[in-house]
Amino acid sequence: MGLELRNIHKHFGPVRANDGISITVETGTLHGLLGENGAGKSTLMKVLSGFHSADSGEIVLDGKKIKLASPDDAIEAGIGMLHQDPLVFLPFSVIDNFVLGSPGGWRLDRRQATAEMQELCDRYGFSFDPHTPSRLLTVGERQQLEIVRLLWLGARVLILDEPTTGISADQRAKLFAALKSLSKEGMSVIFVSHKLEEVADLCERVTVMKRGKVVGEADMPVPPERLVEMMFGQAVQIRDRKEVAHGKSRLTVDSVRMATGLLSEESTSLEVNAGEVIGLAGMEGSGQDTFLRICSGMRSLKQGSVTVAGKDLTGKHYRDFLAADVKYLPAGRLEEGLIEGLTITEHFVLSGEDRSFFIDWAQARNRAVEQVDHFAIKGTEASTVESLSGGNQQRLLLAMLPHELSVLLMEHPTRGLDIESADWVWEQLLARREDGTSIVFASADLDELLRYSDRILVFFSGRVIGELDASSTNVDEIGLLIGGRSANPELSEGSQ
Amino acid sequence: MSSYRLTNLVLPISVVVASAVGLLVLAGTNPWDPLQLIVEGSIGWPPFEAGKSAKVGDTVMVWVPIALASAGLIVTFNAGMWNIGIEGQIIMGAIAAAFVAREVSAPRPLLVLLTILAGAVGGLLWGLLVGVLRTAGGVNEIFGGLGLDFVAISFTTYLIIDPWARTGVASTSGTDIFPDAALLPSSSGTRLSLLAIAIALLAIGGVWILFRGTLYGLKLKAVGANLRSSFLMGIPTNRYLLGAFMICGALAGIGGTVQATGFHFKLIPAISGGYGFLAILVVLLARYQAFWVIPISFFFAMIAVGSSQLDLRLDLNSALGGVLQGVLVLSAMFGLGWAAYRTKRQLQEASGGDSG
Amino acid sequence: MKSRKRWLSTLAVFLSFALVAAACGDDSETTTTLDGGTDTTATPSAGAPDDFQIGIILVGPEFDRGYSQAHFEGAQYAIEQLGLPEENLISLDFVNPGDNPGLTPEGVAADMISQGADLVIFNSDDMRDGALAAAEQNPDIPMIWVSGDSAWADGKAYEAELTNLGNVWGQMIFGKMIAGCAAALTTETGELAYLGPLTNDETRRLVNSAYLGAQYCWENFRGESADSLDFTVTYIGFWFEIPGVTLDATQVVNDFIDGGSDVVLSGIDTTQALVRTGQRADAGESLWAVPYDFVDACQEAPGICLGVPYFNWGPAYLDIAQSVIDGTYTADWNWIAPDWSDINAVDSSVVGYGKGDGLSTENAADLDTFIAGLGDGSIQLYRGPLNWQDGSQFLGDGEVATDFQIWYSEQCLEGVVGACSINVFG
Known about the structure:
By secondary structure, chain B is mainly alpha-helical. Chain B has helices at residues 6-26, 32-43, 53-78, 86-103, 108-135, 141-161, 194-213, 215-225, 227-232, 237-264, 275-285, 290-306, 308-314, 319-351. Chain B has 14 helices and no strands. Chain C is globular, with a radius of gyration of 22 Å. Chain C has 2 domains: 21-172 and 313-336, Response regulator (Rossmann fold, 3-Layer(aba) Sandwich); 173-310 and 354-417, 3-Layer(aba) Sandwich (Rossmann fold), CATH 3.40.50. Chains B and C meet through helix 2, helix 3, helix 6, helix 12 and helix 13 of B and strand 2 and helix 2 of C.
């Protein structure tokens, strides 16, 4: 008995967010669901909680097939979802939030509800005043409120989506204790995370997802390296790239700090030479993104310095970095790169070198046609960018890069691309090296990191815990570092 | 204009016509009479018939500020901004023009030019203020604009009942009539000012060219469509946002000048006539296309001037004109939304949708 | 004068009447009217030709239970008395730039004339420029600008060339004197308060009149000493409250009452003074109020209402219309006194005072005595010595004010407490 997902498919247009997923969660187990961002965990959980309906597949709860057309249905069926950002109505009092989702609706017995809430709180070691406005609760307390609410509504399966983001260690301990005692009472808990340690701490069984598929399952405990390997894949170590002689120093980052909080006192320094490729590895949110934003001038520095081709750009505006031929391509192509509603031609005009006031549309179109052809973009010069597939959007972004490029900073250069596009992208990028362009990229794909980097920086918890030579390292070494374990035991305790 | 394809027009227009007819039948009249009366009361029946030039003049001079404000709003809408502060910009333009008209003496052509410039500057500064609040203060332009509208209205009321109170008895009917030299030149016996028409057409043409053929316009559009991507492309987004507010404010301010020196010939408390808000509807209906502003705003002007006939002639409540206008706008929006939805659906079906 | 209202509401009735077609030849046919032929069912009496039409242009809503409705009903009264069908009254309401920015009074007048109006009435001071323009454009059509002074040869703004534009206004100064008297007769604390709108000659004139009436009755009926009566005025800054711009009328009333006043007289277009005072009276305080403008205004709090001074435009409009029909119309400035034989006579008195339930029988009798005194001239309140608020002389000993002096009241009188020359942003 328990919860069974059978062959769930969910597509968004061409994107296969869930591609035939089957998972079984036994009653009364704590089941971890691991995977990088974009692996399809969230989509799956939304299917399970009724926010999305699956294109095909079955959900079976305690031997009964159930149909979830809305979140209501899910709650009815006993599946409760705790969102990453608890859906609490802030101006309402705790008790009003508590009773808000109760079925029926017209009759409202606050006194009885309060008593029942108190009882649940006592049982699981939570405490908050029912009459306090919920905006005064911390994120952790809101989660607790949401949990007791879901229990009150009769949840038999509890889904927690990245529940430890933004809560204190103390609250996390409380949460974990409550989850453990719930599972002993027969509650099935699905714990979605990309944090290995938490999964290791809490879960009895784990399923790993990648690119919309289940890529591994294991009963805990399992060594973290093994989990990392499942998440990132067993890299085929081939380095078929052409080596290019590295030139003079292009980008120097000295003693910068990524973490804003109090977690890390350590600073990071890096020197990148012309034609060099640096890969940034690590769990999502370990500091790679911040590091790239520092290098691009998008984020101001509290300490340290950034120098580009000998020019000190510390504290300078993003546009000064641009003028120094530093270009930053974030992961969100449509959010942070292209402009929805505008055509390919218009994008080339915007990124082009011609600054004259009036636009020569005939010439702009001709140029766009040439570029579309040259970069093999599947679309016409009049296509709007949102009509392009991810691969073609990435091609367009590369086509828009200026000729003169000193440093190229990229997040996930090939995420979501088919193999052909991904190869093509790297062909273009590697060719850039010959003009002396330095490339710094973050990726969740160990294969990509090992294959194309000269050096790999591994980030953990807001700092660099290892710098590896890509030609001599291996997956195990990287996996260990990504999981926060290194030869130096002191470092591995630094998390959270 | 490519996005305003004929097929997309058929649906909204049929919805609009159906709603209008339905409303009038409900109001107990046949639908043709009121429409004919509105036309007759605004531009004469048959249209532009001789001897109705005063009416035509009024209608055209109502059209001018709506068209100017609409032209300005196309700029801010393209920059992704809801410039609700447009009313205040019209008002401050009118106040600045009134100041020049009252305080400066100069030969007529020069004085008229000065009032227009003053109006542009007044509106521009007021628009800039909305923009600065937004870019530097983080105040959403809708709230900042509403606040500044309110300030502008209060300021007008203050000027009219205190420092600029008319001689004799202070009254809310406005300031004294401006000296002749400050009034927009108009053809005799009417308010019709060719200069005002020329300015409005120029503004609409200018905005059309701005978004059709200039890099500045394209960048504004980019900023409006995706602020973050634009910033990453190296476009100084704040400067462009401010620029949009300034252009819009200046055009609205000229509209205010026309209201003051070409229609009321004085400053009155409701000097904006609500044309700024009306222009928001115009631009939404025109789907940000400059050319469509011309007929749509003229249609609103005709209703503004002509709907009194419903009360005078048919003994229908004159508020029916406003209701009619509201129903037309809502149904047009509905029709446009529906058409847009269908287009999107077709597009999605063709391309297989987008990623979630 | 009477500036009146703007795009919101106001008070009184209006009426207008007609002009014989004789003057205008072929005005009757005009443009195509779409309402089809009107069946004239009523038989003209009083010699009115059955195509005689009155056009009345209202600044506010036709049914505002206030200023514009009073004018509209006045015009209806005139049409009825002339024995004409109601179709002969052409009216358009909401003629103000706030509600109808595309309309101008002169444009509406032109429409009405082309529909056959023989007399056009502009009911608001705000229509001044439109009325002057319309009169100039249509020199053959008699017109009335209500509350104006353009036809007053001795006034400050005489427009001698506009021989077709007359003015009419009621002598509300008497209504306000009666209101002031009723307040003084009733007060227990000897402290009266006046809620003023915006400051101008007209509103000061009314404050002064209320003050004089109160002072007279305080001394002569109550037998108190002249300086023991407090009379405070606070102007909110506009005809009605505009949140954020004007003072908060309700708050001002609270301040009046908290400061010791037990009778509040209203000079603004809305009924906050009566309503708020009524609420406080319900809470157990001994308070009274006097509203303004509309004959039924007391209804909002009848128990504490001492009465209301109001306008009744019917007789005035009937007279004007009749004179147009008779061909005897001249563009005069008419500041019409109440019919002293019965100030509440519907058929003859332009200004009235409707006593409220809050007025005791005894005080009502005194008030009647006072009204009679005003009527027979034995009580003349605008007689010197009177000083302006700043101490300068208004009227010398025994001097009686002229209409001119009263109409253009530059200041409040000495004895009135509160600023009478500042406005909103003072």
